Amino acid sequence: MKVLQINTICGSGSVGRITVDIVHALEEQGDEGMVAFGRRTGPEGIPTYKFGTDLDMGFHVLHTFFRGEHGFASKKQTGRLIEKIKEYDPDIIHLHNIHGFYLDVEQLFWYLKQAGKPVVWTLHDCWSFTGHCAHFDYIGCMKWKTGCGSCPQYRSVYPYALFKDNTASNYQRKKAAFTGVPSLTVVTPSRWLAGYAKESYLGEYPVQVIPNGIALDKFHPVDQGLRRKLGFEGKYILLGVASMWEERKGYAYFEQLADRLPDDYQIILIGLSKRKMKKLHPKIHGVMRTNSMEELAEYYSMADAYVNTTLEDTFPTTNLEALACGTPVITFATGGSVESVDESCGKVVPKGDVEALEAAVKAMRSEPDKREACLAKASHYDKNERFQDYLKLYAKLLHEE
User: Fold this and answer.
1) N or C terminus: which one in the chain shows less Cβ crowding within 10 Å?
2) SS3 label, residue 6
3) According to the UniProt entry, what is the EC number of this protein (predicted)?
């Protein structure tokens, strides 16, 4: 079978890496895959088609800023994509993130409704069923259930419609575009997101949960003497990791923990910007962003506990990476973050409750070693098995045709 995946980027970022891994999984069983993408560059050795341009992305950004209509520009390059789909003639079309300043979603879905091909759409956030935002959990806004409008965060969150609130119109246009595809299956990485998708207008489609997977050959317990190199012997180490430490990732809670915990605790945060490094709390050890899985595995393995203070998240892979390195996870009860954590391998505390967070950290320190339980939990998230779930779904859809 031939599968064409469509995503903002290919080969980098968590979703971009997923597209590449799915191509590898297809090729290993004698099938064929290609990734069509709009921005950056694709990796060597993977069949790809870049249909976007930097100039068009700039126009789409301006279109979003001034008209508040994200996803409703880029008509010319969407036309190029459709021509490529016709030429490649895939058996399955697999959508990932179709937002990101590179697609006209109305044009694409008009084609999908005519093409008669099975479509798989993996939702990595909530953008598909709102009038604007990719996440609404932080502010607890549920307007998307009936129709958006008077958006409380259209200026402040991606995709940043700075000068116009067009969320009511966007919602109706997206609903009209995204419904009515003859054969479409929605996939989500968490039960939390699946539940919301079923409540939205996408609930007319079957919804299946396929959790994100991780590379267990990269993330596993390692001991390279990092604790000694950093001078943290005798410390109970708490680790936090984020690609960007914005307010919604809960950076402030680590500062509060640093003030509350005794000196024999050490907080390490990875993914800090230069600006945050300059203003770092004196009791926090900061590390700038790293794309090295090997380096991350060293930090996860060194830590006594991984602490996830995110205030909104679909299904964080950092939890899985920590577990795979034998490190228990303490997380706020946020979105899908709780789905990879149970009492055997970590703790869940009420979102935003710093006192409960402190208590959980201290309780974890007094409990028996959880390494084996963490590794057992992580074994359920082997990326190779999760991509097999996609191949099974593809085969099922083709069999039903």
Assistant:
1) C
2) strand
3) 2.4.-.-
